[in-house]
Design goal:
Length: about 130
């Protein structure tokens, strides 16, 4: 149902926790998950970049579970990082590897100046199948 490909003709992406290409069959139900942040259902907010990244991935997991999906069924993510640096890339890559394991989706990381709220430093959205 999901095919992940990393051609040797493209840069190695596995160490960063994503695949260069992800294909799904046309008969799958596709789910689009809105950007997930480092906040909690009760309104509390995770403090600091690494905690926001961890909570954002947990919120992504919760969103996927709500529709009967999971990390292994994600085919594409887009990640937005405020104040992007190599140190922040390492944190994102570690969380992405841990969250997806061998089921690495296609991924785009976009450095941004600001997200919707002043406290926000990280956001991740996803496309998944059920």
């Amino acid at each position: 149902m999901i095919e992940r490909t990393n051609p040797t003709t493209l840069s190695a992406s596995v160490d960063y926790g994503y695949s260069q290409l992800t294909a799904i069959s046309a008969t799958s139900k596709i789910v689009f998950v809105s950007g997930q942040l480092g906040d909690f259902a009760d309104g509390q907010k995770a403090e600091g970049f690494e905690k926001q990244v961890g909570r954002s991935f947990e919120n992504l997991r919760l969103a996927l579970e709500a529709v009967g999906s999971g990390p292994e069924k994600v085919v594409k993510v887009t990640i937005l990082v405020v104040g992007h640096t190599e140190d922040r890339l390492a944190i994102v890559s570690e969380h992405r590897r841990r969250f997806f394991g061998d089921a690495r989706p296609a991924s785009t990381l976009i450095p941004v100046q600001r997200l919707a709220g002043d406290w926000m430093e990280f956001e991740i959205d996803a496309v998944a199948v059920v």
